[in-house]
Amino acid sequence: MALTLRAVGGLTTAEIARALLVPVSTVGQRISRAKQQIKASGAQFQLPDEAHRLERVAAVLHVLYLIFNEGYTASSGSALQRVELTTEAIRLTRQLRERLPEDGEVAGLLALLLLTDARRVARTGPDGALILLSEQDRRRWDTAAIAEGIRLITETLAVAPIGPYQLQAAIAAVHDEAASSQDTDWKQILGLYDLLGVLAPGPMVALNRIVAVAMVHGPQAGLQQLGAAEAEPALGGHHRVDAVRAHLLELAGDHGSARAAYELAARRTLSVPEQRYLKSRAAQLGPTTPA
User: Fold this and answer.
1) How much is the pLDDT for 13?
2) pTM for the model
3) How many domains does the chain have?
């Protein structure tokens, strides 16, 4: 899988490691072992038999998902987005959909990418600054991509076994269908995250679910669950945990603690646009109190 990421997405080993939430050395070792296995076995590109097809397709979908994510929110650098990666991921997923029209998860991934990419233009201001979903001008969203994504996921959920990509697409559809941030059906989103946590548990799923918990049951409920999620090794020291904590503390009215969490998140991220956004949020909460 890592080899495919490098060939198709043009990602570095460090970017792959950040996407997988593992050390860079681990990814390097995986790539080295894969190269050695290919060389030793004389492996060739050919269509797998039915027994191996589902496993192979799942790996391809995961690669495309990671490529898109790195393009949608670059893990480092001066630009928030790398459009060449998101465009390529969508193009390749469309090709896979044409070849596997009955596969519900292929359709689910394509719907997810379309529904997410539909918001891309509204995610940054004229100066490249990050604009959160709740603050975006929804008139700038790509209505054609949203309509295609909603149609695709609606048709797929009705006929295919439910899978993780379909659930993520359904969550994206709920966001995209809301006329405003205030109109977002967070109860439905929380229910979808509960299902996703059963089908495909993972640290980022848990973190996103906590945001939904906070939006439904209040920021204190989210903060209580955040401590447990932070114990997950993959999330230890991750800037997104600090950013979520800062957001929930701000909602709870604890501006001093929120400011400190925003500042910590800004120090931990390698993305310049994210750093600027997080620092601006901290500044909006007032000056740091001298020790």
Assistant:
1) 66
2) 0.85
3) 2
